[in-house]
Design brief:
The chain has 424 residues and is of the alpha/beta class. It is built from 13 helices and 21 strands. α1 (20-31) runs parallel beside α10, α1 packs parallel to α13 (392-408) and α6 crosses α13. It starts with 11 loop residues before the first strand and ends in a 16-residue tail after the last helix. It binds flavin-adenine dinucleotide. The site of flavin-adenine dinucleotide (FAD) has 41 residues, from α1, β2, α2, β15 and β18.
Amino acid sequence: MVTSSTSDKKRTVAVIGGGAIGVAAASFLLRDGNDVVLIERSGIGEGASFGNAGCLNPSSVVPMSMPGTLKKVPGYLLDPLGPLSIRWRYLPTLAPWLIRFVQAGTQAKVRAQARALKPMLEDSYGAWLPLVRNAGAEDLIRRDGHLVVYRTQADFEGDALGYQLRRDNGIAFDVLRADELWQFEPSISHDYTIGVAFHQNGHTVNPNRLVRSVAEAFRRDGGRVLAAQAHGFVREGGRLTGVETDAGVIPADAAVVAAGAHSRAFAASLGDDVPLDTERGYHVLISSPETRPRRPILDASAKFVSTPMETGLRLAGTVEFAGLDAPPNWPRADYLLTLGRRLFPGLAASYPEGRVSRWMGFRPSMPDSLPVIGRASQCPDVAYAFGHGHVGLAAAARTGEAVADLIAGRTPAFDLAPFAPTRF
Ligand SMILES: Cc1cc2nc3c(=O)[nH]c(=O)nc-3n(C[C@H](O)[C@H](O)[C@H](O)COP(=O)(O)OP(=O)(O)OC[C@H]3O[C@@H](n4cnc5c(N)ncnc54)[C@H](O)[C@@H]3O)c2cc1C
């Protein structure tokens, strides 16, 4: 059992969604002595939490919408290997989100967003440790650092504001010249001439197994896992009495919405119209790769991450706006393989059937790069914990603790005001 903290009374709490966020929240709620039921409609850890790049990066305080991002968009869209694509049919639906995204990218706003993200991402490796230790799964997380690499000085200088935001928030890094970079990470191509090393960052070698292991420990410690789809809330006199699922109504005094990219309708039903959309992302995983980096590497010029996983080398990234229903566009994943070969010249020119697997998942994304963490407007018994975009794995443990604090009526360890559902 994770070390117990004080709690005043035992309540039944239903957590909707068994991704990294829901599983972490359920674990901390159980630690508080609540009766916790985790409701998951497909498999634990099989949503966005399955195929991400595994990075546990306190350095990810830099928002997605930055001053100047808009100017780069046409170039990204025209490049078939570019990091961004939009299904044009989806544009009318996406337009309000995109407008907010652009509006979020001012100098003043990105500074405020980075300040808000800092405590949620702080020592992300250390935040996961109690959950991972309790699960006996310490082998799944490492603190080997993180490397960002650039082909040109101009690309590096283009990210100057991002490094300033990190400095302003006390995040240390070393800039490596070409010869230092190639020595630090021998697997990469010498076309990359500048590197930035974050020594305090961590990663998991298997995000899905990480989430499943913590969920198994939750169940072992007395938590309940229900394989069902949640549909909505049952309330009496303004208080929550249950969660409607396709397995019937689950009685509950409190609930947490952690359904990732699928959370919007739950919030809307409680009076919170939050602009949640999805940035779809892809990965390819090469089993038994010919070469593997010592730590995760972000190719900042091509915008993808390569992570050494226990199952192979994962190349993950891209942002695709196409909503929740359109089928995957697998060439987006295949491009990652092309980009990976540019970064790692040691990779084979082709792979036989079965050596490379492909995946697509739905990042739950808010236009201001800040998740929604807070109480529902029309029902204080329901807490939201969704919308973590590109950093949900890194932020999961601290978010889970904050949610347990909210449900217990304690003051969370970091300020939740920037994450309020009513901020729009
Ligand atoms: C390519 C890619 C790379 C990424 N790399 C990183 C990274 O390196 N580091 C990082 O921190 N983040 C990364 N992310 C982001 C990270 O994966 C997400 O932010 C995180 O997984 C979100 O977790 P979640 O629990 O909110 O959502 P999910 O993992 O999607 O979980 C939500 C769960 O809710 C369930 N659900 C939905 N609706 C219902 C319902 N009605 N009833 C019951 N269950 C329901 C779903 O089945 C799902 O299991 C990456 C994402 C992608 C796509």
